[in-house]
Amino acid sequence: MPMFRKKPVEVEAVLFDNVGNVYDFVGENMTQPLGGKVGIITLEGTMWASPGDWIIKGVNGEFYPCKPDIFEKTYDPA
């Protein structure tokens, strides 16, 4: 089976440690908080982020949440 490596790109990301910093980052792409989580409006629909998750701005300006263990495995500080 052929193997592929993800192209290196730099992305902006913010740690969800409070609702205010998430809103400052994603603006209108965030829903009203519910049960300690926030909805992030993504290209695939609304995805829910929990405190401790990372919110990533993709290469085309889209936003999506990422669990901290996946973020750590995928991204290094630029």
Task: Give a brief rundown of this model.
This protein is α+β, with helices and mostly antiparallel strands.
How does this model look, in words?
The protein is α+β, with helices and mostly antiparallel strands and 78 residues long. It has one domain. 19% of the residues lie in helices and 28% in strands. It has 2 helices and 5 strands, in the order βαββββα. A 3-stranded antiparallel sheet has the order 1-4-5. The longest helix is centred in the first third of the chain and has 8 residues, at 19-26. The chain is globular.
The 3D shape can be described as globular
What letter string, H or E per element, gives the SSE order?
A: EHEEEEH
- The whole-number mean of residue pLDDT values reads 95
Q: What distance lies between the first and last C-alpha atoms, to the nearest angstrom? A: 31 Å
Question: How many domains in all?
Answer: 1
| Computed CA radius of gyration, to the nearest angstrom | 13 Å
- How big a fraction of the residues is strand? 25-35%
Largest sheet: 3 strands, antiparallel
Q: Count of DSSP E strands?
A: 5
Strand order of the largest sheet: 1-4-5
The tally of helices reads 2
What's the structural blueprint in terms of helices and strands?
Layout: E1 12-15, H1 19-26, E2 38-42, E3 45-49, E4 54-57, E5 63-66, H2 68-74
Antiparallel strand pairs: 1-4, 2-3, 4-5
List keywords for this structure.
two-stranded antiparallel sheet, 3-stranded antiparallel sheet, alpha+beta, 19% helix, 2 helices, 28% strand, globular, 78 residues
